[in-house]
Specification:
Distance between the termini: 23 Å
Helix content: 25-40%
Number of strands: 6
Low-confidence stretches: none
Strand content: 25-35%
Number of helices: 4
Order of helices and strands: EEEHHEEEHH
Strand order of the largest sheet: 1-2-3
Shape: globular
Length: about 100
């Protein structure tokens, strides 16, 4: 079963508290992602990180507009629920995709 996000709350410390449809909860640290720079550098703006995040209606992804200056552009920075699940559950990634986990 593909994981889905029931609700997510972005925190000023660049983490996101994700409540999954199965009832479990994870806190995902986005600091390493922000550190990559490029388009991800926009997420270093704490106000943008917190207020700009949205979960898609079906719960298959969460994201932000491309920049704080373009709030109408939803989905500029997008993360799949499955990718976030594997980030929070690396043992599941090893089990499901052994080559990717190396």
């Amino acid at each position: 079963m593909m994981p889905r996000i029931a609700r997510a709350i972005a925190q000023p410390d660049t983490s996101v508290r994700v409540e999954w449809t199965d009832g479990s909860i994870d806190v995902i640290d986005f600091k390493p992602i922000v550190a990559h720079g490029g388009v991800m550098a926009a997420l270093a703006d704490r106000a943008f990180f917190v207020s700009g995040m949205q979960v898609d209606a079906e719960g298959y992804s969460l994201g932000w507009p491309s920049t704080p200056a373009s709030p109408a552009e939803v989905g500029g920075i997008d993360f799949s629920a499955q990718g976030l699940w594997y980030r929070a559950h690396p043992d599941d990634l090893k089990r499901d995709h052994p080559a990717a986990a190396e």
